[in-house]
Amino acid sequence: MASVDTATNRFSDKLLELLDRVEYRRVETGEDMEEVARIRFKAYKMADILPLKGNTLIDDIDFDSHAYVFGIYYEERLISTVRLHHVTPEHRVSSSGSIFPKEINAFLDAGMSLIDPVRLAADPLVLREMPAIPYLTLRIATMATDYFAVDRCLQLVKPQHAAFYKRVFDADTIVEPQKDCGDYNIDLTLMATRTKETLPPLYKRFPFFKSEAYERRMMFARGGDMPFSPLTVRPTARRAHFGHGQIEISGNAYAG
């Protein structure tokens, strides 16, 4: 057990070091969306996830009022992207809902709210050099579950990735692997994490998932809750974990 804990601690320390050189950017301009499309193209072509035609690179719900598209930058280079949907009984737009509507509507009809992280794509060349990219990217989904205080965080994933989500996020399988899933060229399974039960032990085991409240606000607040739109957001995991640090404000960028 001690060796497992030591390995986990070393891994967490490594991720905290990587986060020191990471910036998150909420994508709301055409120029940034073009960069996102390029990353999606590279990832989808490599993995043959979706057809590279029509509206698969940028689609209408990228601009939904409850959708949040992010770019993850490492040393000022875009390395990955993810789109999150805040799904509620009153606002049911989501990618997972378009594939498995019965199961998603069952959650919503029970009064639950959800985070649906999809369109996760990483630059294949960078991913070979930095296999930790999924953690850096999925940290945003963890922050969203915290910010919106949702009941479940969904995972619409390849069956071969299910073990990862079970091991890291204690995700339950909602739909067993299915073929012929809409536009997808791959089999898919639907999983879901019970966020209110899972977040406290997740933060304890992997402190790089932690964040300060102001970071979550910079990432997800809109309208009257956000007096200005931040250019970039620096991760606050180290500050949240160790309880020290300094907040620096430069232009429209927050650093923690």
Automatic annotation (TrEMBL):
Domain of life: Bacteria
Pfam entry (one): FeeM
InterPro entries: Acyl_CoA_acyltransferase, FeeM_cat
SUPFAM superfamilies per record: Acyl-CoA N-acyltransferases (Nat) (SSF55729)
Cleavable signal peptide: none
Residue intervals of the N-acyl amino acid synthase FeeM catalytic core domain: 36-193
Protein name, UniProt field: N-acyl amino acid synthase FeeM catalytic core domain-containing protein
